[in-house]
Task: inverse folding
């Protein structure tokens, strides 16, 4: 495996093999598998779970990692092409990124969603620009429009908890949030659940439709897997029979890049906070998922997060096992 | 061993076994003992020695670690229960801490002494709240009222330098300092020296008495070990025959949580700086100890720190060996 | 090997043995060579390449490292001797550095060039003060006047690309830069190229002469190796027949420590930016080198950096292999 940038680059059977490997490594440690191997971790936006889970993954496989973030450079990194660098930035990504990559056997890259130009972000231009500067195996640690490590962990978590694949109902629900958040997780999640063969409903208010290319990609995955994908603002219909309610906030796609208009579109939507009533007509053993970090009392009620429906902690833990499988396939 | 939160949780023989293991690991490295094992390090207040000594300890045993501090989260971590998180904090410790723990085989936690409510800090409420969020073995890397890793290292250091246990005189002396410092080290130290069987004198000005629960715990340890514990402001009597002068500043317990009153209580106490005359009537081979960091010329004179009485560097080094023993017992 | 502070401390044959070891480790990994060994990394000024390449080097050899920078201490580190520490700094380097060293099997130190007192910096007083506080093997990770790890990597890079040693022409060219930069890299580089037996020309405008002690040391190395060292401001003569053009900016030595005078001396020198015409009379296969970070369009034109003459990425990568050789010799 030379790249792990998008779950959509893989066949369903390839993903299932990765998940089997993840579960094997969870139960049968291989503390010498990657002895002497180095993972470079490049963070262009901050992280807690991703940093910790990747560093832990490398240690568990007997290797190691190092972390670079732009604030470690004297005055940040320049990204614009062809510029005369007589300002603050002392280094250009065209040197910094290949050099960082040159010290690793693989590189994980977290890019930053500017939340300004929707088209550019759907094309994942920033992440692609960065990854093309590296000639070693590379891993998308969250880009403007994707988060394949989260998706692989989410898939494993549903397997672990016996959530049905074909025939299972997956509701990705928009949630209220005081800030305008990127599209990475919802875009990756709708595709992942469709690829797993589930009947996926995107539940969101008007103005928060997922972009058509995102929905198209998910529908194509569903066509291959036997699943389905729909989008609605009818909460009652969406939640009926749900096996999974996966909450996530994202910026208004109708007003993408326009913060005041986005804030206006979100105004009064505080009731988009997952709580007990959301599960009234769901499957008896329906589960609550979220990629974390999550705002309590805003995105989801405490009693859900602290109750038996929530599987957010095992979900976060599976980041580590999913990434161990990816690293094992890349570097072994 | 599932917890290393307080030396008081252990029998004297258990501590001695830990110290033997620490000395064995110092002289006979075991660079494969913890292959593939991960220590999560959670710092809620900054650190230099603790960070370095724990990271080095894991490498020496063949494992690894990762570090999380709240400033790595986008806007800090929320700690209040039941709050609607519509402010700055994007994550609650109720998710962050279990997730961090889920990536480790053990977790070290450094909590923050608010220095506001003495009763709450004596009960170590903040640390206990954090550790209860983790279901893996946990280590107290300094809490509001305790510092068992420092105490284990201090005990080893006295053994290394042949300081007598039963019959040895240990003086814990308050020292001047421009800031109001926590009670963690003095509280842990007086208990440790008593548990080691020493005759312990707490030397401090009026208003800086150690809290009664702290003294009570130390006296109980002394009763088991054959040592003794007293408290005084009579410097001449306290220092006579001392084998160890252990300097440490702490906030006024009479004015705990009241910074102006504490500053007033410290005013004019600049002579509480350990210097040559303090050793005039001490044992001939009396030693100076301090947990570091130490303010030169304020807490202790340069000529003491730079002279043959000071064992602060080996004392700091023993942090690593003491922690290696704890980790070895926890994770092997 | 107990110290790697200056290439000048070694015989030519010793350097060649290090380079052979570096190349061997590049092609034949030894992922267990330094199992359980710890490298302490002390950064008194920020770093990206040095941090990443040392951390990766230790992982590739089966050991590990930890990183300390002064901002990790509560209020920075005090460096002045004999001071009463009643201000902000809570710790003195006289404790902090020996303690950090006590956790490692070797220590790398990056000191800070104040760019104030030329004589003190040529004597490398700051670095020497720090290293004398450590009683374990130590590595200069860049000091005020030296950068032996960079030099070892540069030498290896020229070997890798078949750049002639004796008879090869090495031009170290001053370059324009908006800021006043230290003398570490130019001083180390002129010495390294001379020691390699090359004919070295330092090309710089008036006022930017390298200090006489630096030139003297390089000439002595040339006398041993059969090389030569000259200095000029005649660009046409300097570049003719060059095998290497190595660009680097540095502060005016005539106005050292005087920022306004230095800025005045640099004014109008924007044409000191290496570009295609610089290679017109150079050797056909002449190469461009730079230690990085480099300012594009200021120090060197994009078409050079992005073209076939530039070997800056392999040069940076060789930092890792050069340091692996040093660590292997120190800690094996």
Result:
């Amino acid at each position: 495996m030379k790249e792990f940038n998008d779950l959509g680059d893989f066949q369903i059977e390839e993903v299932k093999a990765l998940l089997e490997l993840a579960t094997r490594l969870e139960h049968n440690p291989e503390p010498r598998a990657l002895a002497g191997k180095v993972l470079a971790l490049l963070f262009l936006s901050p992280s807690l779970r991703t940093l910790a889970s990747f560093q832990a993954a490398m240690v568990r496989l007997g290797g190691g990692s190092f972390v670079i973030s732009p604030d470690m450079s004297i005055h940040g990194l320049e990204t614009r092409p062809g510029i005369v660098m007589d300002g603050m930035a002392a280094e250009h990504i065209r040197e910094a990124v290949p050099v960082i990559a040159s010290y690793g056997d693989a590189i994980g890259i977290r890019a930053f969603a500017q939340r300004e130009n929707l088209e550019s972000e759907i094309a994942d231009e920033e992440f692609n620009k960065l990854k093309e500067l590296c000639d070693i195996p590379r891993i998308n640690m969250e880009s403007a429009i994707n988060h394949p490590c989260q998706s692989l962990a989410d898939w494993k978590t549903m397997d672990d908890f016996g959530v049905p694949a074909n025939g299972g109902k997956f509701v990705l629900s928009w949630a209220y949030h005081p800030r305008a958040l990127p599209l990475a997780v919802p875009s990756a999640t709708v595709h992942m659940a469709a690829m797993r063969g589930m009947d996926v409903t995107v539940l969101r208010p008007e103005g928060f439709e997922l972009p058509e290319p995102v929905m198209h990609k998910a529908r194509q995955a569903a066509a291959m897997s036997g699943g389905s994908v729909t989008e609605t603002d009818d909460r009652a219909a969406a939640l009926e029979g749900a096996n999974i309610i996966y909450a996530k906030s994202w910026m208004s796609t109708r007003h993408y890049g326009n913060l005041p208009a986005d804030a206006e579109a979100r105004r009064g939507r505080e009731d988009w906070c997952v709580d007990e009533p959301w599960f009234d007509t769901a499957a008896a053993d329906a589960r609550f998922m979220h990629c974390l970090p999550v705002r309590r009392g805003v995105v989801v009620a405490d009693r859900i997060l602290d109750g038996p429906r929530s599987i957010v902690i095992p979900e976060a833990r599976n980041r580590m096992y999913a990434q161990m499988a990816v690293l094992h396939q890349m570097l072994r």
Observations:
- Chain C has two domains: 3-146+318-331, 162-310.
